[in-house]
Amino acid sequence: MYDYIIIGAGINGCFLAHELSKYDLDVLVLEKGPDVASGATMANSAIIHPGHDPKPGTLKAKLNVRGNELYPSVCKEMDAAFRQTSAFVVATNQEELAVIHTLHEQSQTRNVPSEILDRAQAIYLEPNLSDNVIAALNLPSTGIITPWEVAFNLMEEAILNDVKLYLDTKVLSIIARPKTCYIDAKSGDSRYAYEVITGKGNFIGSNIINAAGVYADEIYSMLNPIDKFTITSRKGEYFILDKLPEPLVSRVIYPIPSSKGKGVLVVPTIHGNTLLGPSSEFIDDKNGDFTDTETLEYVRSQVKKTVKNIPFNKAIKTFAGLRPTGPTGDFIIEESFDFPGFINIGAIQSPGLASAPAICEYVMDTIIEKQVILKEKKTYIKRTKLPILYKMADSEKQKLWKENPSYGKIVCRCEHISEGEIIDSIRRPLGATTLDGVKKRVRPSMGRCQGSFCQPAIIEILASELNISVEEVKLYNEGSNVVIKGESN
Ligand SMILES: Cc1cc2nc3c(=O)[nH]c(=O)nc-3n(C[C@H](O)[C@H](O)[C@H](O)COP(=O)(O)OP(=O)(O)OC[C@H]3O[C@@H](n4cnc5c(N)ncnc54)[C@H](O)[C@@H]3O)c2cc1C
């Protein structure tokens, strides 16, 4: 029997798996996607919001502020990029200026650093602000990350410390086994254990963590169809702009928030691209993460209100993500009353990424510490850093090329990714098995040509490393094979 079965390997599942891996516990993670970070964690604005705007008194407000505090050290520890860019919330009329004053006061009560800048001060720092902008709320503690990098690194270290991860393993149903099945180590009481049924076998856990994103409601109602909550998908669509000779903006630019969220943003990314988005639209389809022309037109019209000189002709990709939106607007983080040991981490829409380390801390402190005896492992293995060429000084690169010439063989010319880095991404403990997996881990195909130049070479490397034929190499999931064997005449 597992001590914890975590359902979903998004940022929340990964943080909890990593934290639990520090203790003498048997932990299993079940993920229906072919890789870690397959849901909202893969498709968002990547902002570590400072915590200025969630409603007072909500879990969101508390955990966002704490998450923002924790990220710099978490990223340092996990060797993941974090950049404190700061952000502006911009006002374009007197009504919006009043909102800026309210947000400023709210920030002060939460110890979130903030200051109001007039137009001249704001333009000095961000020359491409639109001509309509009259003032800005400066939020210097805002940061950006690469969300899936944090998730991968956490899960990789969890795996090194004996957490089991089963990918492509969809949870189909959950059965509460009779109350005599599990004897609580702390209280000595007996209670339910839970049998989790998947397409790849059944697993029994004394405790379950439901971190299934937009599907968290369906997972809980498999067990408890009465006391259920509902999650609706709220889609956000984006453009990604190519790297520009001069950055369009150097910090996050928020419009004034509305009932639909933080609005359509302009966001610099860790790797020098610019994100424009997201839109905000409720949809019925929990798999509907595709873009459409009409919504992207809306995104264009909105970003022009806050930033000018946007080179839309430099868009290299569009994408969409689905926010798991709950009934109250707040996060749902609690142990089920009817089914002790079953923890819901649901409705984690924005600022869910920014809050993730604090969500983990909160779950550990308020729920898990009461459920099990936490005994630290005697030995804990830290993941080793792999060479990342773009982060290296020239002298370090020269040394590396001498030791292993494959790091000198550039496969992706847009992002300057070497054969050695691609091989590392496949051989590491949570290794890539698909083109998309390689792309997420070390970035080939993320650039201007979106893989049209380097993809054939990456297919060859994947085939050779995984000892499969090129026809078996997949883009992402089952059936997405890229090379199709032709019929010979
Ligand atoms: C458009 C958009 C913009 C956003 N911008 C920001 C931002 O800038 N800053 C911020 O703080 N937050 C942002 N968010 C919110 C943030 O992305 C989410 O709160 C966060 O990623 C949620 O992580 P999670 O681990 O809870 O869920 P997810 O990342 O969705 O992970 C859930 C996982 O569960 C798996 N799963 C589902 N069902 C099953 C099943 N039956 N069996 C097994 N596995 C299953 C899924 O495949 C998935 O991998 C944004 C979200 C969106 C969509």
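^ flavin-adenine dinucleotide complex. The chain has a mean pLDDT of 95. The CA atoms of residues 160 and 381 lie 6 Å apart.
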